[in-house]
Amino acid sequence: MRLCMTCTNRPGLLLDISQVLVEQKCTIVTVEVVEGAVYLECHLAVAEQMPELIRELLRVKDIHTVKEVTTMPSKEWAEQLEAVLSALQDGLLSVNLSGIVEKYNKTALTILNLKADNLDQPLSAALMDILFISRTIKEGYSFRNQEVFMGTTGRYCTVSTRPLRNNNGKITGVVIVLCESQGAWAFKPQILPLKAIEGPVMAGQTLEDRLGAVEREILQATIYKFRSSRQAGAVLGLSHTAILKKLKKHGLQSGSY
């Protein structure tokens, strides 16, 4: 049974309600307090005692009305939130400080190529970095409309983040909004002005030397655009370890140009 009791909140009100339930031998399942009302879900000792229970609750000081309801506020709010998330065209998810997804919609899973069955595990460090989650947690700032490339899906999308804080101002997680884009400034290797290709072949220069110079320019241009080795690796289809090795080989660092 679920009840809504309109009331004037005061110290000891929940204790008085609990005493009535004990006297009626009812089992409390959950209690939710909102402004001006207390919601109670409980199991009755016998079904026929509901009228008597309501009469006893109305005798409690500062309780004004008692009526039966079908759902608790938390469940109703959860259903409303689920409806809103499902209706959104953009992807939306929230993660805690451990990188575990707590809320999401199907659009976000599609953009990120994630499966709902695997969301009990933290997001990868690469994804935390690409989606600006790690920086949002570390720096405490929001990021807006940051265009990124999702290497796992071949999609470009804009990412916006906002830190979640508790009543003390401490960050407890991050909300991320994802919007698919056409990649207006997308990296396109085929149109890069590769001087290593356009320039003259030097005497004694081997094909390996020539290809190495092209690879260096591609790496340099990618790092210049994305300012992140993880992001550059995602664009070029390389693991983070692999691109770090190539950057070291060519004497480049993240942020080099």
Describe this structure in words.
This is TyrR family helix-turn-helix protein. With 257 residues, this protein is an alpha+beta fold. It folds into three domains: 2-75, 2-Layer Sandwich (Alpha-Beta Plaits), CATH 3.30.70.260; 88-180, Beta-Lactamase (2-Layer Sandwich); 207-250. The chain is built from ten helices and nine strands. The protein has helices at 13-23, 50-58, 73-87, 106-112, 125-130, 133-139, 195-198, 207-226, 229-236, 240-249; strands at 2-7, 27-34, 37-43, 63-68, 91-96, 101-104, 143-150, 155-165, 171-181. The strands form two sheets. The protein has a five-stranded antiparallel β-sheet with strand order 6-5-9-8-7. Strands 2-3-1-4 form a four-stranded antiparallel β-sheet, with helices on one face. The termini are far apart.
Low-confidence stretches: 184-193
State the domain count: 3
Q: Which H/E pattern describes the elements?
A: EHEEHEHEEHHHEEEHHHH
Q: CATH topology of the largest domain, which one?
A: Beta-Lactamase
Taking Cα atoms only, what radius of gyration do you get, to the nearest Å? 29 Å
Percent strand: 25-35%
Strands, count:
9
Rounded to the nearest angstrom, the distance between the terminal CA atoms is 67 Å
CATH superfamily of the largest domain: PAS domain
Main beta-sheet strand count, sense and barrel state: 5 strands, antiparallel
The strands making up the biggest β-sheet line up spatially as 6-5-9-8-7
CATH class of the largest domain: Alpha Beta
Number of helices: 10
Question: What is the mean pLDDT?
Answer: 83
- The proportion of residues forming helix, as a percent range, comes to 25-40%
C-alpha geometry? rod-shaped
- Counting helices, strands and paired strands, the structural category is alpha+beta
CATH architecture annotation name of the largest domain:
2-Layer Sandwich
